[in-house]
Design a protein that fits this description.
83 residues, mainly alpha
């Protein structure tokens, strides 16, 4: 936990930063730009590749590709939030 003096100091730094570098502050507060089609492309490519590899008899790498496709599906619905 921050003390009151540390919190005031941090608030002062934030205010100065927002005045001196507004573009930087906007970049951090806006969050990342997400491309929803990227998840679909990753799922399609890795799903098809995994199925193909399983069909030709390479189960290890085929299951790994299907795992990546599944992870892309999960992350599309539940994106990671890093704080």
């Amino acid at each position: 936990m921050l003390s009151d003096a540390e919190r005031r100091s941090l608030d002062e730094i934030e205010q100065r930063l927002s005045l001196e570098e507004p573009d930087l502050v906007r970049a951090f507060t806006a969050g990342p730009v997400r491309n929803p089609w990227m998840h679909h492309i990753v799922m399609l490519v890795f799903g098809a590749l995994g199925a193909l590899l399983l069909a030709i008899g390479a189960p290890g790498i085929g299951l790994l590709c299907l795992l990546v496709a599944g992870a892309a599906a999960v992350l599309q619905r539940h994106p990671l939030r890093i704080r």
